[in-house]
Amino acid sequence: MNDETRRVSQRVQARVIAAIDAWLAEPDTIERGAAGFARALDTRPIELVSGALAASNSYRDGVMIQLAWGLEEPGFDHTQKGEGARSAAGAIARALAARHIPAVKDAYQNIGKNTANLARGNVPAFDDLLRWMNDATEVERKAVLGLVTATVAASARPVLPMSELARANLSFVNVVAALDQLLLTPSGGAHEQFAVAAFLEALIDEFGLTGIGALSVRTKNINASDASAGTAADVQVVRGNRVEEAFEVSASGWRDKLDQAILAAKNADLNRVHILSRVDNLEGLGELLKGSTTDVTVIDVKTLLRTLVAVLKKPGREVALIRLYEHLDRRQPDTSRVNAYVELLRRHSLTA
Predict the structure, then answer these.
(1) Which of 122, 141, 123 is nearest to 132 (CA)?
(2) Which class in CATH covers the domain with range 167-347?
(3) What is the pLDDT along the chain (352 residues), one digit of tens a residue?
(4) Which residues of the chain form CATH 3.40.91?
(5) CA dihedral 52, 55, 58, 62 (to 10 degrees)
(6) Helix (H) or strand (E) segment spanning residue 297
(7) pTM
């Protein structure tokens, strides 16, 4: 990507993000503003926009980027993917996620990964909308971009932003007190799963084990099965695509997770798997594992989290608490849990 292409890509990113931010700055104007843009358009482009946006968030992002590209580069063929479009898509996706708007990692990975031609017959409304853009006036295209960005801004989740943390206050006793209180709040396992993932991520980061070919942590959405999420377990430590450790996490007892944990180990070709749950005792574990070759560890989730907090230094604890917020915001649907977590951090004097 040459300098000029990079500049166009950056201008496209800026145009889309600025338009969405303008709506978010005055959310009470979104409905009225969107209606105004719709009145400025004929029925046909409105129908095409509706059909394209209904297809998926990838097509939604593709519409915004193609429109913005044409506005930044006169004469642009909207049916073709601009050079540097995937870079723009990635930046926009990160911006949307940070603004609590459902996002895909890279729109063009789904709608144009290996081809420049985007009108490929997969979503007729999207194809026809791109062709319409080529014949539309700049005023019409700006109206469509305004309509689409208003629609996107309206989908933002009403959650509190993550507070700035007071690093000096992130002592072991303060962080553990907040986590203990969090785990007392029923969440269908969300608090347990995402806290484990967040603090494992921070630990790997603190020990410098991240990067290409190094370790990373993956966790699934709270309502997704392991199979549908493409994961071996609730939380995984991976190296590349190889699962190194698998954790099944439960808000209740370990017995309900035993069969699932053994299956997870088998699916990931692991000799060992971990169950993190509330553990009163391990009575019956040996008997239940008779005949199994899998080494199953059973650890109290609260104890593990306390251990991870103890090992981490204050900057690492800060990273973990921020990652926990991100998981709660992006990987489970209940916004009240996100807001309650922010309030919890404030009550425990962990915020600046």
Answers:
(1) 141
(2) alpha beta
(3) 678 889 999 999 999 999 999 999 999 999 999 999 999 999 999 999 999 999 999 999 999 999 999 999 999 999 999 988 999 999 999 999 989 998 898 899 888 777 889 998 999 999 999 999 999 999 999 999 999 999 999 999 889 999 999 999 999 999 999 999 999 999 999 999 999 999 999 999 998 876 666 899 999 998 865 555 556 799 999 998 889 999 999 999 999 899 999 999 998 999 999 999 999 899 999 899 988 889 999 999 999 999 999 999 999 999 999 999 999 998 998 999 999 999 999 999 999 9
(4) 167-347
(5) -10
(6) strand 295-300
(7) 0.75
